[in-house]
Write a structure and sequence with these properties.
This protein has 367 residues and is mainly alpha-helical. The chain contains 16 helices and six strands. Strand 2 and strand 3 form a beta hairpin. It starts with a helix and ends in a 7-residue tail after the last helix.
Length: 367
């Protein structure tokens, strides 16, 4: 009986995947700032317009999406601005055409969903914005279609701008861009290496079609999550080498403030494809590569690019995406303070995966 009751409770109180206490705290802070500042600016902008509210109610729901689930397709800038504004316009138009409020409200929400879907700006608060056009009272009636722009569009634009600024500090990607698998980088028709042996977009589409339920996640994000889950399952069920097991430890490097000629000399003398760049305390600052042109008057800092890093205890499987994306030839291994301690190349990865293939199948599955 108790198990059944707990099952019912869990079913009625689902927990969103990937959420943490930090995420929820950030969402609360973001909503506080977003709604507060939007209200202040909107109040200043509409101060001389009688009957107009500072904020429209759908904005509260928009803030939930924007700050709590910024990766959702429903929370992207065009979804918020376009969804709210277009839906309000739809609601006002329907109110002009259908005198009966109840019927007009139903038609407005239905049409808002259809128009948002066609314009690729589906946004749940848009349903509430369409109702505002029908049931918004004197303000919506007095300003007619102008109500969709002030305050609905104004509120939405301000909230999105604040969200863009806020998420620069929250470490969330907004507007969200899925980390897609790199395309073939050599100008040929072959698929990228990862896509030749792993799930394809067609596999994801087929699974989504069989599920019969729309999901609030992009296909690219779903693809990335499934691929990451596959690697995690392999790590759990096999003895996977760590970066410390396979990395080179005697790693050549160059100071960021050194002349480019020094880096160029090291690359040629040791036949290196990349050379780590460090600061005065040995912390990784970037990398320089063999294909960079000789520039005798330049400095290393002018020529270096961002480095991909990992920790010694990280699984080598975590490096697969980086070392097969067509852009990176090595991953720099750092300690917890960013100091360079090793390097894993594509050759090291091949050896590690070969070892895993030989020994992994002979080991019992871990549970």
């Amino acid at each position: 009986m108790q198990d059944t009751l707990m099952g019912v409770v869990r079913a009625l109180t689902p927990r969103m995947a990937g959420t943490t206490f930090r995420d929820r705290s950030i969402a609360c802070l973001g909503a506080l700032i977003g709604i507060g500042v939007t209200g202040l600016i909107s109040g200043w902008a509409v101060g001389n317009m009688q009957h107009l509210p500072l904020l429209v109610a759908p904005l509260g729901a928009s803030a939930v999406l924007l700050f709590a689930v910024p990766a959702s397709p429903l929370a992207q800038p065009w979804s918020i601005i376009g969804g709210n504004t277009i839906s309000a316009l739809v609601g006002i138009a329907v109110a002009h055409l259908i005198p009966d409020k109840a019927l007009a409200a139903a038609v407005a929400v239905a049409l808002a969903i259809a128009v948002m879907s066609l314009l690729r700006c589906l946004h749940p608060p848009g349903g509430a914005a369409s109702l505002l056009g029908v049931l918004g009272g004197p303000a919506a009636a007095s300003y007619s279609f102008g109500f969709a722009f002030v305050p609905v569009a104004l509120n939405s634009i301000l909230l999105v701008i604040l969200g863009l600024v806020f998420h620069r500090f929250s470490k969330h990607s907004y507007p969200h861009r899925a980390k897609v698998v790199m395309a073939q980088t050599h100008g040929t028709k072959d698929l990228a290496p990862q896509l030749r042996v792993e799930l394809t977009e067609g596999d994801i589409d087929a699974a989504l079609a069989e599920g019969d339920e729309p999901l609030d996640i992009s296909r690219d994000d779903l693809h990335r999550i499934v691929r990451r889950a596959e690697l995690s399952a392999l790590e759990r069920t096999a003895s996977v080498p760590r970066c410390a097991d396979v990395m080179s430890r005697d790693v050549l490097s160059v100071r960021a403030d050194a002349p480019w000629s020094e880096a160029h000399r090291l690359l040629l003398a040791h036949d290196l494809r990349i050379l780590p760049v460090v600061d005065g305390e040995g912390r990784v600052a970037g990398v320089v590569e063999m294909h960079e042109p000789d520039h005798p008057l330049g400095s290393v800092s002018e020529m270096m690019s961002d480095a991909v890093t990992a920790l010694p205890d990280d699984s080598v499987l975590r490096l697969v995406d980086h070392l097969s994306d067509g852009r990176h030839h090595a991953v720099l291994i750092t300690d917890g303070r960013g100091k360079l301690v090793g390097l894993v190349t594509q050759t090291d990865m091949i050896v590690a995966l070969a070892r895993l293939a030989v020994t992994g199948a002979a080991r019992p599955v871990k549970t």
